[in-house]
Design a protein that fits this description.
390 residues, 13 helices
Length: 390
């Protein structure tokens, strides 16, 4: 049977699968909470919920540590700020538009949003010239866009469209495609394209086309919607080395709260991310419904940054389209197979999908401080050892 720790007595909706079905060694999986508890005991994290799935079946979900430090223990149904795990939803939405024939990745953005025509690029301290390589749709998703961030202005905008039409007048920091800077401005332009071609506000599109069909009932657009008794607190390490907990707020740093933060607005449970990951692992289908073409999933999950370096988080990782690909797994990702893809988030959360072994690894935590590389490596190394190779 699927192993669930800490959350006894909770009705569980995921399909209960035994080792014969999921192909994971349960004895090895049982080491995950023990090893992660040691990390929490050493004050290197406050706690996390982990999920391991293989062959389309959830094999284990574990909760270790605290929802509120030293007061309320974590449960597997608790809701974390997903942070940048939100970003790839924009890329999936764009690929849906590609599949429907509205646009192509190598289209110039100006073809779809004329305000971007003739956009300037910085050429010196006081100088600029018209960009030689205007922004493409692909650039919006691979963090090579060169669009500057302007948080004060962004917070003052009332809609994604208003924000994007202001960005169209900005001078690019470099020729698109030549330099990588992790960020979010291109993702807002992409979200506006989704609004334009779907005829729906971006958040509504996500709900209607992705969240509801996948059954992601515990994914929320705002902390206000999260049940108070399931909301994981934001834990930060003080200068004295103690953990302090405070209530999590919405990611309105970049939006002012007038519209959904497409680059980091979601709150969710580990279990809710399973069908999302499984759909991608299945090449775009889940429970008999096709969300994306296989070709689109391939584009989303392969390195998309050319020869630009650095272009990812952690050695050997390179950005795909809002996901990243482990091109040369090493360090905390050493246990993954080459070609695995995933996305992490501020606070130490991460999702990794390994197509070679058909395995999904999910870890959610909301801790600022501690040692997340150790946390990730411990989880991935232990879980990957449970893979039974035929």
């Amino acid at each position: 049977k699927m192993r669930i720790s800490v959350a006894l007595g909770l009705l569980f909706t995921a399909s209960h699968a035994g080792a014969a079905e999921h192909g994971l060694d349960e004895k090895v999986l049982s080491q995950i909470p023990k090893k992660l508890q040691e990390i929490v005991d050493r004050k290197q994290s406050t706690g996390m919920v982990t999920l391991v799935a293989r062959n389309g079946k959830i094999a284990s979900i574990d909760a270790v540590g605290w929802r509120i430090m030293d007061k309320e223990p974590l449960e597997i149904t608790d809701v974390f700020w997903a942070a940048s795990i939100t970003k790839p939803f924009v890329a999936v939405a764009i690929m849906m538009m590609v599949d429907e024939g509205h646009l192509q990745l190598d289209d110039l953005v100006e073809k779809h949003i004329p305000e971007f025509k003739g956009q300037k690029v910085k050429t010196g301290k006081q100088r600029s010239a018209t960009a030689k390589h205007p922004l493409t749709v692909r650039n919006l998703l691979n963090h090579l866009d060169g669009l500057p961030k302007n948080p004060n202005r962004s917070r003052a905008t009332k809609t994604i469209k208003e924000r994007v039409l202001k960005a169209a007048k900005d001078t690019l920091m470099w020729e698109p495609g030549t330099k990588w800077m992790y960020g979010g401005e291109g993702l807002y332009v992409a979200a506006y394209l989704v609004e334009k071609y779907s005829g729906m506000p971006y958040a509504e599109f996500l709900k209607a086309r992705i969240l509801d069909p996948l059954g992601m009932k515990n994914t929320y657009f705002s902390i206000k919607d999260v049940p108070e008794n399931r909301a994981v607190r934001k834990h930060s390490k003080t200068k004295k080395g103690k953990w302090a907990a405070e209530k999590m707020r919405d990611f309105s740093w970049s939006t002012g709260g007038s519209y959904f933060a497409v680059d980091g607005g979601f709150f969710c449970t580990a279990e809710d991310l399973f069908p999302w990951c499984q759909m991608l692992l299945n090449g775009g289908t889940y429970n008999g419904t096709r969300y994306l073409s296989e070709k689109s999933v391939h584009e989303l999950t392969r390195k998309q940054t050319g020869n630009v370096k650095p272009a990812g988080h952690g050695a050997g990782n390179y950005h795909a389209l809002a996901f990243q690909e482990a091109v040369e797994p090493q360090g905390s990702t050493a246990a993954l197979t080459k070609g695995s893809f995933g996305k992490g988030g501020s606070g130490g959360s991460m999702t990794w999908i390994d197509p070679d072994t058909q395995t999904i690894y999910i870890m959610l935590q909301n801790a600022w401080g501690g040692d997340r590389n150790l946390t990730h490596a411990t989880f991935l190394d232990t879980a990957a050892r449970a893979v039974i190779r035929k």
